[in-house]
User: Fold these one by one.
Assistant:
Number 1:
Amino acid sequence: MRTTVGIIGAGPAGLLLARLLRNAGIDAVVLEVRDRAHVERRQRAGILEQGTVDALRAAGAGARMDREGLRHDGIELRFDRRRHRVDFPALTGGRSVTVYPQTEICKDLIALHLEGGGPLLFGAEALAVEGADTGRPRVRFRHEGREDVLECAYVAGCDGFRGVSRGAVPAGIGRTFEQRYPFGWLGILAEVPPSHDELVYARHDRGFALLSMRSPAVSRLYLQVPEGTDAREWSEERIWRELERRFETADGWTLRRGPVTQKSVTSVRSYVHEPMRHGRLFLAGDAAHVVPPTGAKGLNLAVGDAVTLARALAHERETGSAALLDAYSATCLRRVWQAERFSCDMTTLLHRAPDATAFEDRLQLARLERVTSSRAAGTDLAEAYTGFPLE
Ligand code: APR
Ligand code: PHB
């Protein structure tokens, strides 16, 4: 099999890249190890920066997002049983975010891709990227029990944090930066209208909690739990009781309960692989970087990488110049590190480390007081949350 761009992974990065390349008349083949139902069900945050909304629209993938996405003009920060709203448009000169689940973005992009007859192979596991630093890179993969080779001009490694493509960068060339946090997130989906019309980020002595949503009828809620927690240790009753305690306010706010339809634990980590390119292999999205989920930047970074890479490949096709491809890694990494900084700040602002000292607790509360009372500090958070424009 032969193509111009071999794309490994059909998450948001790979799917959007495939769409953008098709629009630019560049052929691509997408290899995805999981089946379609799995990709379309995977629960991930869907907080879209304006740049992400614009990119999906420009790719011709924004129709349902425009109908069903919800504009959010703020978030609530909750601590000491008090509620504080961060008003995005007021602090940033009009910016906001759109809530549209990542599962729906993937469904929309898959449908468009298959409608266009684009080759997207589900159940196709990339085994290795070979010859990345030669003129003819190849992806070895297994599909329907047979091994095959995809010969490409370029390979896009969009296979997430646990994919194989990052491994094709020799250890002496790549450098990784990593930070672990001593906690994870227990997330649930519940069939109950969200108890608040905006997201609530709560800092509590017992740990962080987050109220989010997937639709007007479905809530998404998270609890900070110790690293290594098994979701089975948490019964529905235990989860709701803990959420109620962490969200409790002095003004009698109540949390609506409903049937839990999904429950899982996600890890919290910061990770960056530099550079995001090796020869003709380009890493995009979680394959190159992971942010802690506080602030929901992962999807936005994946979209930014896909847009930057598609633009660079189209530029090379039109002009013969590899200048944008050469700049790809540095261009993406500037945004990545801003997102790492913000996500790390949000995480330490709101979570309680298991060994936190009384001094650290007081400092954390002072930081929260500052963010919610100073226009300058509030603006810093609001600007980063709503996102910086793509370069
Ligand atoms: N061969 C083929 N496909 C693979 C392989 C492989 N060896 N390994 C992984 N994949 C697939 C996964 O099954 C997944 O569908 O690559 C895809 C990677 O998708 P994501 O993990 O969604 O990564 P990305 O597209 O970069 O999107 C990042 O996902 O984790 C969230 O918060 C993050 O929102 C962000 C988004
Ligand atoms: C989510 O809805 O899953 C979500 C929202 C905001 C975050 C993280 C996750 O910061």
Number 2:
Amino acid sequence: MSIIDELQSLKAEALASIADAETLSQLDSVRVTFLGKKGSLTRVLRGVGFLPAEERPVVGKISNEVRAVLEAAIQERQAALAEADLAARVSADAIDVTLPGRKRLPGRKHLINQIAEEVVDIFLGLGYMVAEGPEVELDHYNFTALNHPPTHPARSATDTFYVRDLSQGLDEDQGPVTEVLLRTHTSPVQVRVMERQKPPVYVIVPGRVYRRDIADPSHLPQFQQIEGLAVDEGITFGDLKGTLDYVCKELFGRDRMTRFRPHFFPFTEPSAEVDVSCGICAGSGCRFCKKTGWLEILGCGIVDPNVFGYVDVDPEVHTGFAFGMGVERIAALRYDIPDLRMLVEGDMRFLRQF
Ligand code: DAH
């Protein structure tokens, strides 16, 4: 077979292979087989050297033509395969642009934070300053300087989370409890503020507190309180009543009434619990207020002189009142939330209502 015949059959064979190639990588190996440096065309052309000189240009011309035809065919096939490939991929991960999008709701403040800010704002309007204290607190501030006797039940390790000393390699529940605890109320901040600041003191203290309670509809082991403290010359129980009555009306509505029931707290004397009239029955008694007509919302009192003793304030010159309220409880009362746990579970269907 002459070289020219060989070139023609090589061309036919290559064109068939190009047409048969089903993927871009198959096509590439066809190209290497026929046109590569060690490919068929190169091999055939090695014979040119043995031809008579006058035949060589003819064979050269034909071989150039064959190369050009094959390159063009490869390019064409490549384009076709690339297009098919793209079409296949597009239909494989097709996006239906007519499907409804995923709704992205705007963020908002959690109800607990909304209420805490609202209470703080009311007191800012009365000239109070915001103060804060540590959640990991010393026994001294949480209990002792707040006039709790050493035997007070709140000090028990079943009621309060204590940091234990594990330095002797003891197990978590075996190490002796230390003077360090998770504060059980925001009242220790009263002591911390009075340590640094001489009267007049008017502070409002929002913060998180901890108690060893099992979560149930009316208890959470971690919740938020807002503490208030006013110390000045001539402060009376009347100032306390006037202030808290005003704040309750701001929080719950002008038509609500308050009442002060005698109570006991170690750090105030006298002490009271404050109730606000039921917003559902306006005081006549219903299921919401358990037929009493009143809802308990906070504890308060006149600062006990013993507390002043710990912070070097002279009770002959200054008197003060203090109060503390639970933020979750206020939220629950204001919005008739039956279970405090709903406030911390993070269920958006619930939280979006507020
Ligand atoms: N600390 C009290 C509690 O956690 C609340 C409280 C009562 C705070 C009377 C006060 C107060 O400042 O005067 O239950």
Number 3:
Amino acid sequence: KRILLLLAAFSLLLSACGREDLSVLRPQGPVAQGQLDLMKLAITIMVVVLLVVFAIAAFVLIKFRRKPGQNEIPEQVEGNHKLEIIWTVIPLVLVIILAVPTVQQLSALGKDYTKDENALQVKVTAHQYWWEFSYPDLGVTTAQDLIIPTDKTISFVLESNDVIHSFWVPSLAGKIDTNFDGTLNKFHFSAPNEGVYRGKCAELCGPSHAYMEFKVKAVSQEEFDNWVTAMQAPAVLPEDEQLAEKFKSACLSCHAVGDQGGPLGPNLTGIGGRESIASMLLNEREGQEGAPVEENLKEWLHDPQAIKPGNEMPSPAELGLTTEEVDAIAEYLADYKLDYETNSAD
Ligand code: CUA
């Protein structure tokens, strides 16, 4: 009964890990697949060892138990070369079976793609509590939604702006730390299937660590090229001139849109088309539950600390913005979408 309860609890735990876009158990790329294969191999070996040891222990307990009327001490045996060799060689063989694919994977993971001309180079900079993605060869910087083509290896160089974070997209690859002392970590993966994969910060980094999510959006090469072109276009500012001035003075001192603004906060180019606002407020779109992007932007802008405690975004009062101005900026940003998705039905 207890074992059944335990099994039920365990399967519940596994099913909680079962979200397709956030699961190491449902790999969507070769790196994650290789790592899952290794886990399966290790678990299989462990289970077999466990079963054999338990079976032998049960057999010994039953076969050599003290029988009624048996009062003399049994024959005492010491040393058995044959047995000792067997129980040394078997673990050795098991360790070799584990070690060979592990070392192979490690060396494949350690391969440097930063000079590979066929790979897409991406620089990841982690901030409390958001992700900056820049494409040095394309002159493009974005935040929170990492857009990548499906048919290329993505080569990452990672660092942090403040404390140690960890970059993790469970369905694409294992995690890697981002350091703030200038040490650059290198990493790579590929995502051959189009789709949106959730990423998480996997290193406790402050009060909003749990809200430090990002998305990886794998698209066709054509869509990726369209996106890059749209990102390289000049900034689209609010049509209303007064609002444009407000937006420039209040927002563009930290944030950038198109070719204008600063690099301190997340780049806002095309923010209206992103998967979520401030990581956790999901935007309504096909196949995804969420609120309209405009509502999410308003919720975020009116009280950023309520969504992500400890973040660097000032409140409207600190920025000198009225409720109406915040609403107008939210509406403008919600409309700031990049038209890059090719519809295969067209
Ligand atoms: Cu960044 Cu946890």
